[in-house]
Each structure stands twice: as C-alpha cells, then as structure tokens.
Specification:
Rossmann fold, Arc Repressor Mutant, subunit A, 5-stranded parallel β-sheet
Length: 446
C-alpha cells in the first residue's frame, strides 16, 4: 500500500454505515473490507492482514467489546476504533483498557473518523509500514474486487506463454490496460508494446498501417514504410476493436497467425516477424461469426485464451478506489487532491456507468475542474449522474404528506431493483432492517 494508506476492516450490523465508510475511506485511498457482525469480523481479520478495524460496540451475537478482546489477542498490532450510538463513559473506558485506539459516537462524523485515522497513522507503531497487496496493481489497473483480481490473475497466468489472447469487454472497461499487463508480465516485457485501434483507422489505410508498404505502392507512398507488426518485433502487438476489421484484412491476419509472415503493401517478399498478438473487442464475435461478418477460422485462432473484463456496474466495490485514484490523477499541479462528499459517492455507487471506467474518470475530471472548494458535491457531477439522485423523488407532488411521499419513494425504488431489498436499502441509504420495517409500516405488498 502507498504510504498512509491502510487496510481497514469495518464491522457494523448497519449496512448503511458499512457502505458509507467503505465508499468514503476507499475514495481516500484506503483498501476497505466490511463485515456485518462480530463473528464474521473476527474471521475476516484472521484471513488476512489489516492495519485498522472500525467496529460498532452494539451488534447481535458477539458484541464489539468481546470481538475487540478476541481481535487484540489474535492481532495485537492491529488498531481498533470503536463506534456506538450509545455514548457511555464506562463502555469507552472498557474498550480502551482492552486496547482500542479511540472511540467515536454515532451519528458518524466523517471528518472525525478521518482525523482519528490520521492520528492513528502518525502515532501507531505498526500503521505506516509499507506492505504489499496480495495482488499489487500495476499501471492504472485499480481495484480490489474478486472480479478484477480474477482478471489480473488470468492475465498474469497466460503471460508466461506465447498464446494469442482475446480480451472481451464493454467499451471503457480497460482492455488495453489488461493487454499491457499481459505484455509486461511476459518474457517479452522488455520489448516493444504497440497498440493499434482497428476502428480508428480507415479500412483502406489499416493494411498499410499494420503491414507497411513499399515505395510507390500507391499514390503518396514516396518511401518504404515498416508497419506496426515489424515495429513490434520481439514484443507484443495489441489489436483493439478487432471485430471492426474488414474481411479482406481478416484473411491477411489469419495468414500471419498461421506462419508469422507478412507482405508489405506493394511488395512480394515474405517477411517473418516474431510478435505476440493480443486482440480485443466489445462486439459479440459469436454473433459476428454467425452473421458472416467475422471469419470463424480467424476467431478460433485469436480465441486461444480469452479474458472477460466485467463492466464497472458488476464491480461497484472498486468505485471508491477508482474515485480516489482519479482525484489524485486530476488534481491541479501542486494542490492536494479533492475529496468526495458522502452524498456524491452514494450517487456514483448507484449509477450504472454504461461508459465504465472511462466514463467514471471523465466524471471525476469534470468535477475536479468545476468544484471550487476541497470537496466534490453531486452538483459538480454530470447531469446523468445527478438524475440518479433526482430519481428518488421523481414525480413528487405538492400537498402530500411526508408519509405518502416516503411510501412512494420506497415503492419506486423497490420496482427499480425488482424487489431486491438489499439493493433498495443501499440506494435509499438506510439499513435493510429499517427498510423492512418501513415496508411493514406502510403495508407495501411484495
């Protein structure tokens, strides 16, 4: 982990508290895991290293005080901050005697939490150590979710071979970053990595761009030119948006995959090139093969190993880490990175991100430019994201009671989540238990 960035475990039976702390502290650059009760918190702590635990005192089953006792016995160097909605000097003193670093009361003040964490980092003998993550992110691959870890593990596993790799995923998911990861982790890592976006180069020029041309091959070809394949010799060529390649060029690529030889445009000599191919597309190649727009034999040649990158909406737990990364990346030169308000983070956690990581980065860059203070608020996010916030009160009318309005919002949110109460509670910013009580109170049918 980077200096002053900690591995934090949040233990609380309220999902709203867990998600708030995970989102906000994650945006500060910390790696945050959560557990819903004392028993699972003890198990999570035992499974891996953590610098700090932030834990509620009053929980069902094993309470925070007992969990603290067991945690300090198993991991004496791990710091623990206790939380409670019941301010009690006696409980605080007991927690301190058992080794708690500090004690805060609910409702949570995020600035207070940050202040205590900062003090823990400065004062604790075990906090600021540099300890590597289980999978250390390289380049700009940011995330701690199981989904992205599986992608990285697959990329590094296939890197040792020379097999052709096909990377699949929606636009903006980071296919080129994964291709670069395959290259860097391979024996070819010290050789060139050449990327070509097949959809960005007009079809008539793409062949010359890939394979080169001889002098006089066409009007304007005043000299011989080596193509991208030759420039990548010994290394890796990344063919992005391979699904947009013309059928004529597909045939020439197939030939190269068969014998690793090419001919420059206007040439007749076979040129042998040692290069590994990593291809990527956001198209459904099975469907393209079925409709005849993509050669089946080329598809099989490319698809020796495939890596599927999940969309951002399927790994929302990575959003806070990505937000923190982009806040630092786009901070004005010489200034501290901005922070994101809990409300803005909640909006980003509940947005679908059709443009994936690329769209998230653009949103953060925009917000950094527009925000004048140290904190990014929902108002600085793009209108599409603000609509997520507005949708909770969409269609509200004057002259209705608060109860009627709240009932309507809950019904609309449950419809949006197809009855998934856990997801609905997350969107509403309340615990699942509170949502269940509201459903019963307002007699909302399943």
């Amino acid at each position: 982990m980077a200096k002053n960035h900690l591995r934090i475990l949040v233990v609380d039976d309220q999902s709203s508290v867990r998600e708030l702390l995970k989102a906000v502290l994650g945006s500060d650059g910390h790696a945050v895991e959560v557990a819903p009760d004392g028993e699972s918190g003890i198990e999570t702590l035992a499974e891996g290293f953590h610098d700090l635990v932030i834990m509620d005192i009053r929980m069902p089953g094993i309470d925070g005080v007992e969990a603290l006792r067991r945690m300090k016995k198993a991991s004496p160097d791990c710091g623990v901050i206790m939380m409670t909605a019941y301010a009690s000097v006696e409980t605080a003193v007991e927690a301190m005697k058992l080794g708690a670093f500090d004690y805060i009361t609910k409702p949570i003040d995020i600035d207070e939490v940050r202040s205590i964490i900062s003090r823990f980092t400065d004062e604790s003998s075990g906090a600021p150590e540099e300890r590597p993550l289980e999978i250390e992110p390289s380049s700009e691959i940011i995330g701690a979710s199981v989904a992205i870890r599986e992608v990285l593990e697959m990329a590094r596993r296939v890197a040792a071979s020379d097999a052709t790799v096909l990377i699949l995923g929606e636009s903006g998911t980071g296919k080129e970053l994964i291709a670069h990861e395959v290259h860097e982790a391979s024996p070819r890592g010290h050789k060139p990595f050449v990327a070509v976006n097949c959809s960005a180069i007009p079809g008539g020029l793409l062949e010359s761009e890939l394979f080169g041309h001889e002098k006089g091959a066409f009007t304007g070809a005043g000299r011989q030119k080596r193509g991208r394949f030759e420039l990548a010799a010994g290394g890796t060529i990344f063919l992005d948006e391979i699904g947009d390649m013309s059928s004529e060029l597909q045939a020439k690529l197939l030939r190269f995959l068969q014998d690793h030889t090419l001919q420059r445009v206007g040439g007749s000599n076979d040129i042998t090139v040692d290069v590994r191919i990593v291809a990527a597309t956001n198209r459904d190649l099975d469907a393209a093969v079925a409709d005849g727009s993509f050669r089946e034999d080329l598809y099989f040649r490319l698809n020796v190993v495939n890596i599927m990158i999940p969309p951002l909406r399927d790994r929302t737990e990575d959003i806070p880490l990505l937000v923190g990364h982009f806040l630092k990346k786009h901070a004005e030169r010489g200034s501290k990175p901005k922070r994101v308000s809990p409300k803005a983070m909640r909006v980003m956690m509940n947005y679908d991100w059709p443009g994936n990581v690329r769209e998230l980065e653009n949103a953060i860059h925009r917000a950094v430019v527009l925000s004048r203070g140290e904190t990014v608020f929902p108002e600085q996010l793009p209108a599409k994201l603000q609509a997520v916030l507005d949708s909770d009160v969409d269609g509200e009318k004057t002259g209705v009671t608060i109860r009627e309005m709240e009932r309507g919002i809950i019904i609309k949110t449950l419809a949006q989540t197809e009855g998934n109460r856990t997801h609905a509670a997350k969107i509403l910013g309340i615990s699942r238990r509170t949502l269940q009580n509201k459903i019963k109170e307002y007699e909302i049918e399943s």
